[in-house]
User: Which sequence fits this backbone?
């Protein structure tokens, strides 16, 4: 018996280009769009409510879907959070970042925030950082999530290994992989201090530290003179 496939809905057919009708989106394309929308929504909800406090139905509704769409694309909350991590890690896998080059401005964001959610990008990233700490504490104790978390950490190490390979110091006795571990430790430790409000998240102190780990002599030679009172920790303290 021949099966019947309903015609595509209006939403499934892209607008015509130059008078020529565009082809309907494939099922795989629609699924990719749904996953991407859910990940963007999850990022905002996790940042506002934390990992444990986030509600999958709210995530789905904010993206314009039902809760069933989440389970059609992800095994559950943990897999959805891993997808959010993958989204952010993808941004650091590009080539060409030079810690000795000029500091780049943060990329513009088009994330659709919740009405009572994070007000700006810095607040969004702080909330997501706190949610990530929650997730790490949970995943590190799980025999399935632990290896998945380790693979994401390796992506970060690989990015720093590329930096260490591209900017080696003269006579550096450590292998790029070892330098990458030190760079990552500084980066992640600084992030925790920023979450605690001890240092400003956009402080130049982190960039200075990364340079000094990579090539101390070059870093000292290229650093501008700093006022004695400028420690980079300009965040407000109680």
Assistant:
């Amino acid at each position: 018996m021949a099966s019947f496939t309903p015609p595509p809905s209006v939403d499934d057919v892209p607008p015509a280009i130059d008078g020529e009708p565009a082809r309907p989106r494939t099922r795989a394309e629609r699924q990719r769009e749904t996953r991407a929308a859910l990940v963007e929504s999850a990022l905002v909800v996790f940042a506002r409510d934390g990992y444990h406090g986030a509600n999958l139905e709210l995530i789905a509704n904010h993206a314009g879907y039902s809760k069933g769409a989440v389970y059609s694309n992800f095994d559950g909350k943990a897999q959805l959070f891993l997808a959010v991590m993958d989204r952010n890690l993808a941004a650091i896998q590009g080539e060409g970042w030079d810690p000795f080059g000029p500091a780049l401005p943060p990329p513009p964001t088009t994330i659709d925030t919740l009405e009572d959610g994070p007000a700006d990008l810095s607040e969004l990233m702080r909330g997501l950082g706190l949610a990530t700490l929650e997730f790490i504490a949970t995943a590190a104790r799980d025999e399935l999530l632990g290896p998945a978390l380790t693979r994401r950490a390796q992506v970060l190490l690989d990015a720093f290994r590329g930096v260490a390979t591209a900017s080696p110091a003269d006579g550096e006795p450590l292998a790029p992989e070892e330098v990458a571990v030190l760079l990552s430790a500084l980066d992640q430790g600084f992030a925790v201090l920023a979450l605690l409000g001890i240092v400003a998240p956009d402080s130049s102190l982190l960039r200075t530290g990364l340079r000094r780990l990579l090539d101390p002599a070059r870093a000292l030679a290229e650093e501008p003179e700093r006022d004695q009172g400028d420690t980079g920790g300009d965040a407000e303290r109680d």
Summary: Residues 56 and 77 are 7 Å apart (CA to CA). The two ends are 73 Å apart (CA to CA). The mean pLDDT is 81. Residues 78-222 form one domain.
